[in-house]
Structure formats: C-alpha cells, structure tokens
Write a structure and sequence with these properties.
It is a single chain. By secondary structure, the chain is of the alpha+beta class. It has one domain: Electron Transport, Fmn-binding Protein, Chain A (Pnp Oxidase, Chain A, Roll), CATH 2.30.110. It has 5 helices and 9 strands. Strands 1, 2, 3, 4, 5, 6, 7, 8 and 9 form a 9-stranded antiparallel β-sheet that branches. A hairpin with a 6-residue loop joins strand 5 and strand 6. Helix 4 crosses helix 5. The two termini are 23 Å apart.
C-alpha cells in the first residue's frame, strides 16, 4: 500500500496532538530526558544503525532533530531516506512507548539558523570543532580544535556551520503503546495509506 504524508488529515492531526500531550505529560512527570529518542537509519546495503538523538521540534510537518551533515547518520539518510524513531517514557501513569516511521528531509536553512543561534555558545563552538564520526587521535586533538575555534570567533557571533543543520521526519506511521498489567497492553496505530490516514487498535 503506497502511503502519502498529508499534514492536514484529521486522523494524522489527532496522532500528532496525542504525541504532544504525552510529551507534555513526560515533561511534567519528571522524565530525565523526555525528548530523547532512538533514531534508526540504514545505509544503501540495508545495514541498520541506531542511536539516541534529541527531538527539537514537533508539529504537523513532522519531527525535527539536528546533527552534523557529515556524520554517519547523515550519510545513511542521504543513501536511504526512510527512518524510524522510538520514545520510551517510564514515569507516566503507564509506561508509554511511541514509535514513528517515515521519510526524512533536511529542515529549512532559516529554521536551522534560528535553532543554532539559540544554543549555548560552547555548543556552537563544539559544532565547528567536531569532525563528527571521524577518527580522533586523542582528546588533546579535540581540545586544540575547540581552542582554535574559540580564538577564531572571539568577540563575535558564532555562525551555523554549512555542514550542520536539521532533519525533519515526515511520519507515515505513528504507534502509541501503553503498558498494562499481564502484558495486555494498549496499542493504537495511526498509518498513512493511499486513501489517507487510518486509526486502528492492535492486539498487544
């Protein structure tokens, strides 16, 4: 079944609203890292990698995260734009897992500029200094690159590097999982299809 993302579909908007409500609840409940999510990507050969990244924005357009465009994850996304996210929150009324699947595209440069400018100066310096995912001889090498970058931008604003920016995952599946006793969990699956989004309950 071919799926088409439609960010005005009422069923899709319900799914996004449900997610945002749960994220707000996770923040209120004191989750240590409520925006932490597993990002799974694959390379051109189909080999899968997963890592934790932080969600920086979510709305009807999708789920946004930021990274170095020369990182391993960025290279995989360039080869294969399909990806998946997974959130786990343990401090809510129930243990909650949210899975999101979809395609990834780069966020607008203006959006990335605005977010980068909001980061602490040390983090902006670090974005320039780090050759993310490349081999590092020792910690002293990284410290030297940080010091050189600090000197280069002494007394001036640190601009966003051209090799750093955002990605937006545009969902075609959002599944909510609510832990229940005896492993009789509640599962709600929202999925995009050729005729629009559908909502279904699934067996645990």
């Amino acid at each position: 079944m071919s799926a088409t993302h439609n960010d005005s579909d009422p069923i899709y908007l319900e799914a996004v609203a449900q997610f945002r409500d749960l994220l707000d609840e996770a923040n209120t409940a004191g989750e240590p890292e409520p925006t932490a999510m597993t990002l799974a990507t694959s390379d051109a050969s189909g080999r899968i990698s997963a890592r934790i990244v932080l969600l920086k924005a979510v709305d009807e357009r999708g789920f946004v995260f930021y990274t170095n465009y020369e990182s391993a994850k960025a290279q995989q996304l360039a080869a294969h734009a399909n990806a998946a996210l997974c959130f786990l929150w343990k401090n809510l009324r129930h243990v909650v897992q949210v899975r999101v699947e979809g395609t990834v595209e780069k966020a607008d440069a203006g959006e990335a500029d605005a977010y980068f400018a909001s980061r602490p100066r040390a983090s902006r310096i670090g974005a320039w200094a780090s050759k993310q995912s490349q081999t590092l001889a020792d910690r002293a090498e990284l410290d030297a690159r940080v010091a050189e970058t600090e000197q280069r931008y002494a007394g001036v604003e640190v601009p966003r590097p051209p090799f750093w920016g955002g990605y937006r995952l545009k969902p075609d599946v959002i599944e909510l999982w609510f832990g229940q006793r005896a492993r009789l969990h509640d599962r709600v699956r929202y999925e995009a299809g050729a005729d629009g989004w559908t909502k279904q309950l699934l067996y645990p």
